[in-house]
Amino acid sequence: MKAKNSHTRQIILLIICLFFALGVVFGTFCAIKYNVNTATATAPQTVPQAIFIFGKFVFAIWLIGFFPFGIFFVPPVAAFCGYSYGISSTAFLLSKDSVMFAHFSVKYLLYTIALVLSACASMHLCFNTYKSSKNPKIILPREKQRILIEYIIILLISFLPLSLGVGLEFFT
Description:
Order of helices and strands: HHHHH
Shape: elongated
Number of domains: 1
Low-confidence stretches: none
Radius of gyration: 18 Å
Number of helices: 5
Structural class: mainly alpha
Strand content: under 5%
């Protein structure tokens, strides 16, 4: 049972990373095709605004995880985040602003860690919810409670790199 669970988690991580990478590639191609090197970056004005801007996808992915059909919505959200990252990074590279690109890359690396952590946990919970909806006796009530507590802890942990990224946004 433990080996199968580990194999499932590896497949989920592979799916999330694949969708994110496809989003980055598609965003990069779109940015090059439409010549977005004249785009300007606008920074959030307040810390709550920055947390909302960068945390809304992490929170949306986390919320989707409670539903069994959410397994079909988490990878496209990860792809959309990769798409926005691809467009933004290409815009900074094409504008030849290497300092802004380095600052942007570190910040988005932290956001990507939060996104992947949240998306993998969400897909795993969706999968478990789907299995328990098919056969309610497969997961005991105490096990359900443990899974939900673990899921909430993962959300709180995923906000740590997000808050570090927001700190980089305002204090550098």
